[in-house]
UniProtKB/TrEMBL annotation:
Belongs to the ATP-dependent AMP-binding enzyme family. Residues 389-464 form the AMP-binding enzyme C-terminal domain. Residues 5-341 form the AMP-dependent synthetase/ligase domain. It comes from Nocardia fusca. This is AMP-binding protein. Keywords: Ligase. InterPro entries: AMP-bd_C (IPR025110), AMP-bd_C_sf (IPR045851), AMP-dep_synth/lig_dom (IPR000873), ANL_N_sf (IPR042099). Gene3D superfamilies: 3.30.300.30, N-terminal domain of ligase-like.
Length: 472
């Protein structure tokens, strides 16, 4: 793997994590105790995850965007007994006492409380088997409420990798540039995929589109893993260069987590060629569908067809299969979805299928299209409106770079649509022009009554818009 400090072989990571695991065990860490990891994308994440797995721990991947109270709440709820963190989070943790202490991964100053100290002093021999299978606790993104931990055990076969490789041409021994945080499902999955395939993995502590474009050319990366807002920033940087870099080695631009949108899909295919793959899934249901370049060329708004081993159904309000073309709740079944929330409960389950939390429909070719969140539907004047449809239309306008629509109370209509838009640098569009643009394509009741111009939209570390943080 390659990070901000340079290259490190997987053999070196194996030895480093052996030494850390030995040190933690000597200090009392027992199997099934919680190890929290609050670390950005660098070698320390690899060190901590593999060391904790060798101890048979419950590995709790913590969001690096957490505020102090939220961080403490999750650490308490998930019963974290040992915490690994980067130096930049020390101030959030000053008076936090844990049974097996805190260990610094990215350390600006040396010390006995660093992973490097354990690596220097510990044995590199493989530790004895812990007698307990490690578990990963991933946190659902939480754009509107309290974060929930989802439990996932180790896969018992190579089927999850096979399902992905059946649709996306990742190959062994190549180079992948990974941009999303590795504490998130997408980042963690592709970290492990690189290990499984023996591929070089390029990561950076902080996302910088200009650095990523340079790195793609320098490393001759064959695959790029991103969330949509990162992809948009990369394309922006690429387009602004007088001498565009050579990205001809790139065979895969793999996108997931939030809505890609037809505008960004077309732009990517036009700029980079037939390399775009769009995955639909969630922390709870794992993956459901993947759209290939051919799918996105034919229907840029789609998320593809179900992957091998996954079953995807559209159910109506009565839990019955909806006719093709009709919008309903999306339910997914596969062998890899979560085992429930750590605090108890799980998403709705019908006939062995778990709700994804979205609504959508299949087109005549069997491709899935997402219409919105099942709890985001706006009822305006008795008509149902899904914000995503309006957002995607707004983003087809060349003078918008970002858009988000929500429902707000209205005395006459029950709810009305409020659109938050980010205009491009030299745009002079006014609200009435925006309403007229929407009215050309969508029904009158889908036209936003309120238009709010903003400089940026609030997003979490995986690019999802934080609707709760919009200035309503």
């Amino acid at each position: 793997m390659i990070d901000d400090l340079g290259a490190l072989t997987f053999a070196a990571i194996e030895q480093r994590s052996n030494a850390i695991a030995a040190g933690w065990r000597q200090r009392g860490l027992r199997p099934d105790e919680g190890v929290g990891i609050l670390v950005r994308n660098h070698r320390g994440f690899f060190d901590a995850v593999f060391a904790a797995a060798k101890c048979g721990a419950r590995i709790v991947l913590l969001n690096t965007d957490f505020a102090g109270p939220q961080l403490r709440d999750v650490i308490h709820r998930e019963q974290v007994a040992l915490l690994v963190h980067d130096d930049e989070y020390s101030d959030l943790l000053d008076d936090l006492a844990l049974p097996h202490g805190r260990w610094r991964a990215w350390a600006e100053t040396p010390g006995d409380d660093t992973l490097d100290a354990l690596i220097t002093t510990g044995t590199t021999s493989p530790p004895p088997a812990p007698g307990h299978t490690a578990r990963i606790i991933l946190l659902a993104s939480g754009t509107t409420g309290t974060l929930k931990g989802t439990q996932r055990s180790q896969p018992r076969s190579l089927a999850p990798i096979g399902a992905l490789l059946d649709r996306v041409p990742f190959r062994a021994g190549e180079t992948t540039t990974l941009c999303p945080p590795m504490f998130h499902t997408l980042g963690f999955a592709h970290m492990m995929l690189a290990v499984a395939l023996g591929s070089t993995l390029v990561v950076r502590r902080r996302f910088d589109a200009h650095q990523i474009v340079d790195s793609l050319e320098r490393t001759r990366s064959t695959a790029l893993v991103v969330v949509p807002i990162m992809l948009a920033r990369i394309l922006d940087d690429y387009a602004q260069r007088d001498d565009p870099p050579d990205l001809s080695a790139l065979r895969i631009a793999y996108v997931a987590v939030s809505a890609l949108g037809p505008g960004l899909a077309i732009r990517t295919l036009t700029t980079l060629g037939p390399v775009l793959y769009n995955m639909y899934g969630s922390t709870e249901v794992a993956y459901a569908t993947i759209a290939t370049p051919a799918d996105l060329t034919a229907q840029p708004a789609c998320v593809g067809t179900p992957v091998r081993g996954a079953r995807v159904e559209i159910l109506d309000d009565h839990g019955q299969p909806a006719p093709r073309g009709q919008t309903g709740r999306i339910f997914v079944g596969n062998p890899y979805q979560s085992q429930g929330y750590t605090g108890g409960g799980h998403k709705d389950i019908v006939d062995g299928l778990m709700a994804s939390g979205d609504v959508g429909h299949f087109d005549t070719a069997g491709r899935l299209l997402i219409d919105g969140r099942d709890d985001d539907m706006i009822i305006s004047g008795g008509e149902n409106v899904f914000p995503r449809e309006v957002e995607e239309l707004l983003l087809t306008h060349p003078e918008f770079s970002e858009a988000c629509c929500i429902g707000t109370p209205d005395d006459a209509y029950g709810q009305r649509i409020r659109a938050f838009v980010v205009r491009t640098e030299h745009s002079t569009l006014e609200a009435d022009e925006i309403r007229a643009y929407v009215k050309l394509t969508l029904a009158r009741y889908k036209v936003p009554r309120d238009i709010v111009f903003v400089d940026t939209l609030p997003r979490n570390s995986t690019g999802k818009i934080l609707t709760r943080d919009l200035n309503l």
